[in-house]
Fold this sequence. Notes:
The chain contains two helices and no strands. By secondary structure, the chain is mainly α. It is rod-shaped, with a radius of gyration of 50 Å. The termini are far apart.
Amino acid sequence: MTLSGRGCWQQRRTIKDLDLALHEAQNRWIRVERARQSVPTNNGEFAARVASLKARIDALQVHLAATEQKQSEYLGQVAVAELEQQKNRLSTYQVQARFALATMYDRAANPEPQKKDQAEAPAPETTAW
């Protein structure tokens, strides 16, 4: 093989590589053009999806606000009921305390007379363990 034959082969190879690169660039250009043409359609579909989701979010927010209001009312009712029960317990304790205090005053004012049997009987012995 001569030098000129080798140079010709390299040129053909370079042209073939360039032809492949040009073909690839054309394919990419076609894909870019198709993508550019479909963008308005995709944006329109996307905008429609966003609008429908916004309506759904708005409806859920209304439902959430109503549920929050109901929950607040329920918790208020539970708190009031608990406080009423506590108030009733405290009233009962107050009556019991007054009764116990009155009993102590009565015992202090009117000591029980000791029975004869108890006065004469010796005190029981206690043993320390």
